[in-house]
Amino acid sequence: PVSGTFTPEQRALYQIVYDAQTAGIQASIVGASFSDISRATNEVVQKGLLDLGLIKSPEEYRRYLPHGISHHIGLDVHDPGLYGALEPDMVITVEPGIYVPEGSPCDPKWWNIGIRIEDDILITAEGPVNLSVDAPRAWDAIEDMMRQKSALDDFVLPELAIE
Asked: Which pTM value belongs to this model?
């Protein structure tokens, strides 16, 4: 969060996305399909949004998760590829998100919150390997990082002389 601290609503939605991503990563095994990954993440999002009262039926989750969950990574950021069974040494993303636009049919306290967590996953015979595991991902780890001093904290943009 820009403020450095999650609001209760941001934290609740972030935790749903985090849990959904964890489920998606766990589903990213040799032989699985992209549909398997999506199903694993979507079930967590559906339950979380139902529990918070943002949706009244599981099918409504697409209102707040309007995008795909995963794609290949290779030479391009969004590498083209067949969406068949996952094979060893493939690298994919797992990136669920929740976006609640202003005017959504839910309590306004949820409006204008957007959360997306993306990690790069190597598919191996032993199971998925999160290549970005060292980046802070849990909400409390993010808040801890936000409290740390940064080299940019004291940076001042130079003034441009306009003639």
From this structure: 0.87
